[in-house]
Amino acid sequence: MELNDLERIRLEKLERMRAAGIEPYPTRVHNTHTIAEAVKQFEAAEKEGTAPAKVILAGRVRSMRLMGKLGFAHAEDGSGRVQLFFRINELGEEAMNTLKEHYDLGDFIEAEGTMMRTRTGEISLQVTAFRMLAKAITPLPAAKDEVVDGEVVRHATLNDPETRYRQRYADLAVNPDVRQIFRTRAGITRAMREFLDGEGFLEVETPILQPIYGGAAARPFITHHNQLKQDLFLRISFELYLKRLLVGMFDRVYEIGRDFRNEGISFKHNPEFTQMEFYAAYLDYLKVMELTENMVAYICDQVLGSRKTTFNGHEIDFTPPWRRVELRQGLIEACGIDIQEHRTDEALFAAMDAKGLKPKPGAPRGKLIDQMIGDFLEPNFIQPTFLYNYPRDISPLAKSMPGDPQTVERFEGFVGGMELCNAFTELNDPLDQEARFLEMGRAYDAEDEESNPLDEDYLRAMRYGMPPCGGFGMGIDRLVMLLTGQRSIREVLLFPHLREREDE
């Protein structure tokens, strides 16, 4: 790998350290406290009037200012930042020269000494000994802090999104706000688990490699098992495996994990994403609605300390109950089309065409309805909204409404103008389910991403008896977007998928 001038200078420093018998990458670290712990302990000692204890800290050098017999630096670990105070009286001339000759911004340092407060009031470590923990060959992008109207404003030179996503390690190292997004993300999944565990759910794991994909309308990724000589699919959903567990007498199960869909990339889509799905015996979609809004409110309470957040310029309130809109009525109000009056593909296409809604020629009725939802309802659902009662032909795993076999008990939750979650009263009639699979196979071309392959083993499981149940799926990435105010899914994925560059 070709080095630039700064990297070559740092590499020369590394070689000089080794020539002087100094190991730039020692095996052991002897820190006694995190920086936050040391600061807290010092503040307690100040309050009690006792002498501060000696500590050994480790962290990355973020700033350095050397002035003859004195030196100041800031070191940062995952818990916080502290000033290091170097003085020739404690360290000696040789150590001060080592500091000047070998250390750069970005290096990891171990520093021993006693906590103190400088004349300006800054809590610092008066260093009595130090050593290199890891020499940084490549300089981190510089960042500048300034005070504007009493608030610290950070200007980071690493602000190009493409570079930030490709070099996330550098992005995280210099942008504390980005690190906070992922701490919040971890808090969201932790709070979600707490809520579901408290509701009697059991967390489980199901296969990622599956012989038959299903449970969602998406094109899968295909891989191959060499020894078994078998094509396999990366899962697009957990659904069919989780519902098998209901047959096996686990009444409430959930899984948080990765799904993989071979589809387009957008501000809200990534080929691999984190999903939470749960299935609960004896619940219907109305009870799942209540469980959903209570779960999200709990997560907001635990992570944000508030049920309100700002997303894309809108203040969003997650306090239950959420708005409920019946799909048929919503489309009548938004488009002036009553889907109950247009029961065939041709009739709905003609009605949409007459309204100038640009229907896709040859699309099945279900896809036409989905088009209207995406164009005229979803973008306008800013506050949390449940859209419910969907057509059967785009919901092959949901139970039909009593007295209306063409409409199923399904809802989707929308927030901030995008879909957040999807849920059904699950179909548990194996004969009806088999007929739906066969119907879907006839309705869509075999290469259509909306097609659902017939899963004989899932049907076998259903024939053993599946309890009435409610099912639910939520994209964790989108929930994190909403609760952290990020407009792109790439901001909430540590390593989002990117196109290859010509220079890679």
Automatic annotation (TrEMBL):
Similarity field: Belongs to the class-II aminoacyl-tRNA synthetase family.
GO biological process, one term: lysyl-tRNA aminoacylation
A GO molecular-function annotation: ATP binding
Protein's recorded name: Lysine--tRNA ligase
EC number, as in UniProt: 6.1.1.6
Domain Aminoacyl-transfer RNA synthetases class-II family profile as annotated: residue spans: 182-496
Highest classification ranks of the organism: Bacteria, Bacillati, Chloroflexota, Anaerolineae, Anaerolineales
Keyword tags: Aminoacyl-tRNA synthetase, ATP-binding, Cytoplasm, Ligase, Magnesium, Metal-binding, Nucleotide-binding, Protein biosynthesis
Cofactor dependence: Mg(2+)
Cofactor note text: Binds 3 Mg(2+) ions per subunit.
Residues where Mg(2+) 2 binds: E419
Record gene name: lysS
